[in-house]
Amino acid sequence: MTPSDLPLWAAWTIVAVTVCGSLLALIGSAGLVVLKRFYERVHAPTLGATLGMALIVLASVMFWSMTEGRLALRDLLIGVFLTVTTPVTLILLARATVYRDRVEGDGHIPPE
Asked: What is the mean pLDDT of each run of 10 residues along the chain (112 residues)?
């Protein structure tokens, strides 16, 4: 089956899931602009990116499963990799910033 042979209901479902995932990633990215401090800003993109990525990967799995005529789970590897690395990056960035702020004597650091 080619992508142009997709049933209309499947195409619209895939588009809706992709758009929802993209909007969640956009809302998370908007948190970088709206929130003032690093400790507030670091959470919004991480949460938005993780959920947005999950929906986009779901749409990709649905698309390739429909076009190939069998369950295509290879895109889930991308989702697993991003799900594991995004929170780890958040933790490492936050810990490095807390350490730097404590060494510099910044009074606006979170409590221990």
From this structure: 80 95 89 81 78 92 90 88 83 87 77 68
